[in-house]
Amino acid sequence: MAVNLDPDLLSILVCPKCRSEFRVDNEANELICTNATCALAYPVRDDIPVLLIDEARETRQENSQA
């Protein structure tokens, strides 16, 4: 299911944690923060972005054990 957001809305939305722009992940139905340090994924439910940090999914790979 593709993320169906108005392009004008998408252009003004920013990550609530770090204020970076988003990229759309249509496969996962999420908005992904473009800041590599933050990189949180926010769900889009019924074409409404849920921009709550508590609802976000971590996307960074932790490689500290290598």
Automatic annotation (TrEMBL):
It holds the Pfam family Trm112p. Belongs to the UPF0434 family. Gene3D superfamilies: 2.20.25.10. SUPFAM superfamilies: Trm112p-like (SSF158997). This is UPF0434 protein F1D05_27475. Transmembrane segments: none annotated. It comes from Kribbella qitaiheensis. GO terms for cellular component: cytosol.
